[in-house]
């Protein structure tokens, strides 16, 4: 009569069967295929330089509307980015031509811009800081409005609208500016984006809108796991 | 062998006997199995594994129509301005359209329907191409005078896009200058025009007023931009 298997022997048999099944699954983790990567053109070896994130912002300052003004306006646009961003191509500071409004009160600037940057951090995403100047019939230039807008972080085409404001003074300053021009101005551009606590002390008056068209191309943000859309 | 009954629906047997010449030249030797297997469409092919060196950008579309407030008889000239690295593979970079006039009715629309198609190759996305537009009309003596300027960047996302471009016209600073320009057929215009409009430098001292609105339709095709790592749309594949 065959001897009944003791508990240990049964366990041993079960283990053997499991090992056989594992072998049959043909998973061999010891085999390393990375040596043949250079032949696999679908996923070629890329160096660290290929994964440096880059962003291209291409577009136009289209125009402006909503300013109750009959004088010519022009814009000065400052491109601001964080510390870890670096411009790869030389930019030019943007100052548009002076444009007279048409019957609807729209101004046409059509000023193209292009900024190509490489990024080391998502902090400090590029922004525009816009100063609106008025040029009157006597040739006098006055800063009449300020605004700032962050450029899009998604790849694609966007129409942006930047609203603007100007600081408001007391009654005397306001009536002076109404009759003679020369509205109150900011002494520094810090309250716009750099030091927002300064805004606690000022009152402002709303002004018109600036229209910007911007196309964005991003490189390697998704590869590094940064999701923007 | 017995002759099978003729199937009259197939036509007479004489017609059916001719070797039908195929209209496809590749099928000429289709009965020969060796010829067939040599056909190039049957080679193994992995598109994703092809090596690449350039990426290609195909820009096609047309300058549809425009609206100018009180001007009529305008022709549109376009110029494509791009960086040095971009090489023109096919197509014309400049073109001049016909002179278009409005219809007799109340609509202010001028139709050109002027197509363009270019293909560029490059290795870097900087200095993305722009189309600079000039609107010109004939003056009272029949001379061609460029009056309106504008520009638009070629869209970066592939697919179909419609862009509305506002043109502007330079304004002479004095009334006398304006009169003289009208007589001579030489109103205020820009020197070094394509770069001045496309780059925007040097325009700070000029004065302009709004000109007209032009509708342009673009169709963008891209190849290999994703392999370089550039992402141009936010839609998921």
Automatic annotation (TrEMBL), chain A:
Residues 4-35 form a coiled coil. GO terms for cellular component: MKS complex. It comes from the Eukaryota. Keywords: Cell projection, Cilium biogenesis/degradation, Coiled coil, Cytoplasm, Cytoskeleton. It holds the Pfam family B9-C2. It is found in: Cytoplasm, Cytoskeleton, Cilium basal body. Its main location: cytoplasm. GO terms for biological process: cilium assembly. PANTHER family: B9 DOMAIN-CONTAINING (PTHR12968), B9 DOMAIN-CONTAINING PROTEIN 2 (PTHR12968:SF2). This is B9 domain-containing protein 2. It comes from Euplotes crassus.
UniProtKB/TrEMBL annotation, chain B:
Keywords: Cell projection, Cilium biogenesis/degradation, Cytoplasm, Cytoskeleton. Pfam families: B9-C2. InterPro entries: C2_B9-type_dom. GO terms for biological process: cilium assembly. It is found in: Cytoplasm, Cytoskeleton, Cilium basal body. Its main location: cytoplasm. Residues 1-22 are annotated as: Disordered. One of its GO terms (cellular component) is MKS complex. Belongs to the B9D family. This is B9 domain-containing protein 1. It comes from Euplotes crassus.
């Amino acid at each position: 009569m065959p001897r009944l298997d003791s508990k240990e022997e049964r366990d041993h048999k079960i283990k053997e069967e499991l090992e056989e099944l594992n072998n049959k699954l043909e998973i061999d983790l010891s085999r390393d295929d990375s040596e043949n990567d250079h032949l696999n053109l679908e996923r070629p070896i890329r160096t660290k330089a290929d994964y440096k994130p880059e962003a291209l912002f291409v577009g136009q300052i289209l125009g402006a509307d909503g300013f109750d003004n009959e004088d010519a306006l022009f814009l000065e646009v400052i491109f601001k980015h964080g510390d870890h961003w670096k411009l790869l191509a030389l930019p030019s500071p943007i100052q548009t031509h002076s444009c007279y409004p048409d019957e609807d009160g729209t101004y046409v600037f059509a000023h193209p811009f292009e900024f190509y940057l490489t990024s080391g951090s998502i902090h400090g995403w590029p922004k525009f800081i816009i100063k609106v100047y008025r040029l009157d019939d006597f040739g006098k230039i006055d800063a009449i409005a300020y605004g700032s807008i962050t450029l899009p972080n998604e790849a694609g085409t966007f129409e942006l609208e930047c609203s603007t404001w100007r600081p408001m003074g007391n009654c005397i300053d306001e009536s002076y500016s109404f009759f003679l021009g020369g509205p109150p101005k900011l002494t520094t551009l810090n309250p716009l984006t750099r030091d927002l606590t300064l805004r606690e002390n000022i009152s402002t008056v709303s002004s018109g809108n600036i229209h910007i068209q911007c196309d964005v191309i991003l490189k390697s943000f998704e590869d590094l796991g940064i999701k923007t859309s | 062998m017995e002759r099978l009954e003729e199937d009259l629906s197939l036509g007479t047997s004489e017609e059916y006997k001719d070797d039908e010449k195929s209209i496809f030249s590749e099928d000429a030797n289709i009965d020969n199995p060796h010829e067939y297997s040599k056909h190039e469409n049957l080679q193994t092919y992995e598109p994703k594994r092809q090596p690449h060196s350039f990426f290609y950008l195909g820009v096609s579309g047309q300058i549809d129509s425009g609206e100018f407030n009180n001007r009529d008889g305008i022709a549109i000239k376009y110029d494509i301005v791009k960086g040095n690295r971009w090489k023109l593979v096919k197509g014309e970079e400049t073109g001049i359209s016909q002179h278009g006039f409005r219809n007799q009715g109340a609509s202010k629309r001028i139709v050109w329907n002027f197509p363009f198609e270019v293909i560029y190759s490059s290795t870097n996305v900087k200095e993305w191409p722009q189309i600079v537009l000039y609107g010109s009309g004939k003056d009272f003596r029949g001379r061609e005078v460029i009056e309106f300027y504008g520009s638009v960047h070629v869209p970066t996302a592939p697919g179909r896009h419609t862009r509305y471009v506002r043109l502007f016209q330079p304004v002479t600073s004095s009334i006398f200058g304006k009169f003289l320009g009208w007589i001579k057929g030489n109103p205020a215009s820009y020197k070094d025009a394509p770069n001045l409009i496309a780059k925007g430098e040097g325009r700070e001292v000029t004065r302009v007023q709004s000109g007209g609105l032009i509708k342009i339709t673009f169709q963008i095709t891209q190849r290999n931009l994703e392999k370089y790592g550039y992402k141009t749309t936010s839609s998921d594949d």
